[in-house]
Amino acid sequence: MNYTEMYQAKLTTAAEAVKLVKSGDWVDYGWCCNHPVELDKALAARKDELFDVKVRGGVTMWMPEICKADDAGDHFTWNSWHCSGIDRKIIGKGMGFFGPMRYSELPRFYRDGNVNVDVAMLQVTPMDSHGNFNFGLSASHLGDMLSRAKKIVVEVNQNLPWVFGLTGTEINIKDVDFVVEGENPAVAALGAGAPPTDVDKKVAEMIVKEIPNGACLQLGIGGMPNTVGSLIAQSDLKDLGVHTEMYVDGFVDMAMAGKLSGKNKSLDKGRQVYAFAAGSQKLYDYIKYNPDVMAAPVDYTNDVHVISQLDNFISINNAIDMDLFGQVNAESAGVKHISGTGGQLDFVMGAYLSKGGKSFICMSSTVTGKDGSVKSRIVPTLTNGSIATDPRSSIHYIVTEYGMVNLKGTSTWERAEALISIAHPDFRDELIANAEKMHIWRKSNKR
Known about the structure:
single chain; alpha/beta; 8-stranded mixed sheet; 15 helices; 27% helix
C-alpha cells in the first residue's frame, strides 16, 4: 500500500473539507490542544449558510473562530465536555453548554452510541512511514470518537509532538476522508498562572510531607497542585511514578530533577502515563518521542480499578468550596459553571483504594470576591446550585493553610469539628453556630 499516494489523493483545502458539514450536524473538534485551527476558520466562514450546527470540544485553549461573531449563536452551538476559561466565555455569550460526566466514561459515550458524530475534525502530527497520524497530546477519548464519526478530516500541524501511546492514540490514512495542511501554528501554551502564594506554599508543604518515596502521583489543574509539583522537584523524594489525567509542566520539572523513575509501579513500570497534556514548550519538547512518557485513553488513566492497582497512589486536587458534611464542590459557583467533574472523583476513589494511597483535596481557607468581600471556602451547606463533585462518603484528606484533616471513619459531628478546625479563624464561630443548628455539633466539641 502506498501511503504517500493515498495521502495526496485525500489532500485538500480547509474550505473544501468543511463542505462536509451540513445544517443540523454534530461536529466534533476533539480535545484541548488538538482542536482544529484552519478547519475552524473555514467552518466559521460558512456561518451564514448554516444553522443548528452543534460542535463539541473540551478544555478549550483559544477562542474558536465559529464562536467569535456577534450572531454566532444563531448558527453554531458549542458543547464542552470540560470547561476552561474560554469555554466559560462562550457559555457566557449564550451559545455554549456543558456536558456533565465523569471523564473516565467519555470514550464509552461514543462506543455505546450515546452521542452522534457527523463530522470529526482535529489537529494531528504529520503522517509517519506507516500511514499513521498521532494525536498523543490528547489521547483522551479521540480514538473512540473517531471510530464513531461518519466523516473524518485531519489537520496536519508539524509542531505537534509525536507521543508514544496505547491503542487509541493514532489514526491511519486509510481511515481518514480528507487531509488538510494547516499553517503549523505553535502548540497552544497553558499559562503558568500567578506565582505561588504563601497559602499555596503552606498547603503544599503539608502534602509533600505525606508523600513516601516510590509513590505514584496525580496532579490536578491549579496553583496548589502545581506548587506541590515544584516542592517535590526540590525535595529529597525519589523513585516517584506518574499516572495522571493531565500532564503538566510540574512533572517535567520533577523528571529533570531526577525524581521520576517509576520503578515501583505495578503497571506501566517506568512510564509516565497521562490522558492529555498541556503546558509550555518545555513540556512539548520533553514528551516528543520520549519513551519514558506514554499517552493513553482516559478510560484507562482514570479507571478506578487501574488506579487502585498502583500502590502508594497520591492524588492531589483543588476545590472551590466544601460544606461541613464533607461534600466537595470543584466545578461551580452556585449555578455559574466553572470547570467540570473531570477525573477528580475517579482519582479520589482510586487513590483511597490503592494500598498506601491517599487523596488530598486542597484549597485556601477563604476567597476574596471582586467586591473585596472575604468568604470562607468551608461553608455550612453548599450554595444552592453548586455541584457536589465528590460525595461526602468518598473524601479522604482535606487541606487548607490551617491544617490537614482525614475524614475517613468520621461521624457528622467529628467532620464538622475537623473541618472547622482548618477553616479561617474569623469564620469558625459562625460555622459552629450553623453546625449546632444542623445538629452536627456536640456540646463537648472543641471551641
